[in-house]
């Protein structure tokens, strides 16, 4: 049996979940324009443990989103994860925020393009196939970049993320493109991914682990 605490703080969504053998058994999250991670994260962790009816010492690993995303929010989440791992003597796991987001949408064909706002019209993004395997590296792109039209070659593409695409999609508009706004990475979607990493012992070195800011 594996009990893993998952923490996702890369955007304004402060998200915590506890998973058992890859299945989410408890989740708590709040999406706020005020970025309340410093106030809410530890409270959410304590409450998740309480309603899961487990002892904190039952946890076998902590998995944290490493980014890309908000600089301050990532540091808060990673500091909490590292502190818990040190105090409990358990290993640290990590997942990038775009891979976590890719779990949000299931498709039969085409590509997934999760996007996290960086600044102005620039976004952290990557490209995943229908099996949710990454086929392009994480990068920063402008929403109007011809890269998207070129790399997908007239196949269905699903854009989603923490952005209002109604304001941005005009330059991308084709019959193949589909848009889903106001979608954020969530610790709920870390449950199975963190379990796979735990089973394969793909742990991070706690002392050297830092956020991925790109």
Shape: globular
Order of helices and strands: EEEHEHEHEEEHEHEH
- Unreliable stretches: none
Report the count of strand segments. Answer: 10
Describe the sheet with the most strands.
Answer: 5 strands, mixed
Helix content: 25-40%
Q: So how many helices?
A: 6
Average pLDDT score: 92
Main sheet: strand order: 3-2-1-4-5
Please, could you describe this protein's structure?
By secondary structure, the protein is of the alpha/beta class. Helix content is 27%, strand content 33%. The chain has helices at 37-51, 71-88, 97-102, 147-152, 165-168, 191-199; strands at residues 3-8, 13-20, 23-31, 61-67, 92-96, 111-119, 122-129, 134-142, 157-161, 177-180. It has a 5-stranded mixed β-sheet with strand order 3-2-1-4-5, sandwiched between helices. Strands 8-7-6-9-10 form a 5-stranded mixed β-sheet. A hairpin with a 4-residue loop joins strand 1 (3-8) and strand 2 (13-20). The longest helix is centred in the middle third of the chain and has 18 residues, at 71-88. It is globular and about 50 Å long. The model has no long low-confidence stretch (mean pLDDT 92).
